[in-house]
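The methods section describes the discrete structure representation at length, but only in general terms. The central task, working out the structure tokens from the amino acid sequence alone, is never made concrete. Nothing conveys this as quickly as seeing an actual entry. For illustration, here is how one protein appears when written out as sequence plus structure tokens:
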Amino acid sequence: MAKLGARWRVGSGVNIPILSAPWFKDGKCVSLDGPLAAPLADVNLSAFVNQFMKTWKVPLIYNLFDITTSHLILSTLSSHRCQMIS
């Protein structure tokens, strides 16, 4: 159990599935229905992160997810409780 104020470190995201891991700030998973669900089932979070800059690949996220999900993804690692590390 993490203490209040603890930081969750994503690292490179290579071991975090984009769809099936509860990596959102609220502990929920990305939910995706439709034709993209199967192709993204084995894709990790690292596919959506510029590893050199430690930033999201924003155009890719907006192209694959609806606006609400995109905003949730983009706000997750910019929160004070989550961070990307090398």
